[in-house]
Design brief:
One of its GO terms (biological process) is ubiquinone biosynthetic process. This protein is mainly alpha-helical and 83 residues long. It has two domains: 46 residues, no CATH class; 36 residues. 75% of the residues lie in helices and 0% in strands. It is built from three helices and no strands. Helix 1 packs across helix 2.
Length: 83
């Protein structure tokens, strides 16, 4: 998931984009942006980069094993007498 530092930075950038007429409420807007971003992101079904990388490695091993088993099965099928 996105870390707190990244969320704070994004909230700050959004607050920096506020028109000059609203600079008096900039801090409040920044807090609201942060709360909205955290709430929205928490509802999304996201995984960490580490978990993604682990699952990717598991999938790569499974694919490799599948290719090996398919080749082995094909070889065994060739050895069977014709039906």
């Amino acid at each position: 998931m996105i870390d707190k530092t990244t969320l704070d930075e994004l909230s700050r950038r959004l607050a920096d984009a506020v028109p000059t007429g609203l600079l008096g409420v900039r801090d409040e807007l920044e807090k609201n942006f942060n709360a909205v971003l955290q709430g929205t992101l928490s509802r999304l079904n996201l995984v960490s980069r580490e978990e993604f990388d682990v699952q990717r490695a598991v999938l790569e091993r499974a694919r490799t094993r599948l290719v090996e088993l398919e080749a082995r099965l094909s070889e065994l099928e060739k050895r069977l007498p014709p039906a």
